[in-house]
């Protein structure tokens, strides 16, 4: 949550920062601001409530000429979104500026202490205390002052600090919030993630917790908080700036839905060998995997729904208990965990605070932890003994789409790989699975083609009072995810329910204004699902069904049908969700919503 960018070098810093903020806006968009040390040595700050576009307009597209600066786009935690609470924040002298992602948990004590010491704090934010702590500690060396101030902070932070009197220097620090250094030719960057700077450099350093990065143009030093130099490798970002552009689509979400066939291909690249699944990333932990006797999956939101598929397959294929728990709850009632427990932490961003904390807890109790994430170098990878990457490319829309389908595909491969190691997956079953996985990208393409009429269908449902989504077995996670998509981007209430539970309460919500969306693809539970669909129909609800091509029965029963190709049941979640993503997208467009940046949300949730 919150996006940070910093630049020092020969370019005009203002446009670099604004460009970076636009690319980071999916991290939070309540307010935005930049600070520059101008060519004449003045500190210039402009910040506005609202999106980066509001800030850009306020700047008249002409920020003062400067070779150094920092910027921020905010998802508010402490202090409502306003011009005053927007970052950057400054100290009493007006020389020091700070941008921050995270929460300073002891800010009230620090604030009282600073005020008692004669400081004037202007905003309601936790961040402002940092500027004043650095002010107190400053003795002519910004990095020393930042390190001293960090010693006072409790909580989480990614920080960038700039001092007017050191006009080529930026100091960044991280603890439980992401921050990377961009290493350019004669220029240096700091950013929350690579999207902000990949247009300028692909060479990055992923900072570790406790690191302090001291940057001048083209040079950087990383120390710990005590000032001891630490070595960090330079990594290369594997995707281009264009990958994070809309590429002719009206919204990132629509582009990312259409990228799903390619994303699935990428997720499987190098992982299907002949007739077997093989995740090399697991090789270093094979011995430990051989001893597991239960599987716990932890995740939030969309990633949690994907993890339900993984848990079902671990249980079915390995024959050991496996389940999935929402990460924020896992921590408060952790199951018995020991060295024989495999914990799979699923997180697109790899930054979700709840998932990271749950993974840490599991690791501390001796579990073998595997991360499934789209983000190389993310915090979750540091809490894990092995990381399996989605390889889906950057996802910019706040509503996850291609990362859901690649999470499911990756978890299917993960469960199959471990089941293979356990010798619990017959060669025939594995052959069948691999063949179905190989067909999947083409089938995802076909699903998008088959969804041609979905815009028209969505228009007919866009005035609904709410929606009920139902599914059974592998259709259930698709129903949950479909309902979440509608909620997130159209702001309509939607419930995702296990179809068999409908009659135990929520059926009372159904009427002519509350349609039923039924995931009714071919499966062992198809007939039961049809019974639930009929229960909804009998209550006057319109029924939108997702069904398998060639199903002649469903056409007679449902009001509208979205078709998907036939596949193995565990992979049906992937195909079934695609029309539901498109349905949510077009309902939201019809209702005039901000599809890519829906209200109150942020792409990565780095607070608990
Ligand atoms: C998905 O559309 C949501 N934006 C949200 O539920 C998300 O999946 C959740 O916050 C978890 O994020 P993560 O995968 O980055 O951990």
Q: Would you spell out the secondary-structure blueprint of this structure?
A:
Layout: E1 3-8, H1 13-24, E2 31-38, E3 43-49, H2 52-59, E4 66-74, E5 89-90, E6 96-104, H3 107-116, H4 128-137, H5 142-150, E7 155-163, E8 170-175, E9 180-183, E10 188-191, E11 203-206, E12 212-216, E13 219-223, E14 235-236, H6 252-258, H7 260-268, E15 272-273, E16 276-277, H8 286-290, E17 294-299, H9 301-318, E18 322-326, H10 327-330, E19 341-347, H11 353-364, E20 368-373, H12 379-382, E21 386-389, H13 402-421, H14 427-450, H15 454-461, E22 466-471, H16 475-490, E23 493-498, E24 516-520, H17 526-537, E25 543-548, H18 552-557, E26 560-564, H19 569-590
Parallel strand pairs: 17-18, 17-19, 19-20, 20-21, 22-23, 22-24, 24-25, 25-26
Antiparallel strand pairs: 1-4, 1-10, 2-3, 2-4, 5-6, 6-7, 7-8, 8-12, 9-10, 9-11, 11-14, 12-13, 15-16
Helix pairs in contact: 4-5, 7-13, 7-14, 9-13, 9-16, 13-19, 14-19, 15-19, 16-19
The chain binds 2-deoxy-2-amino glucitol-6-phosphate.
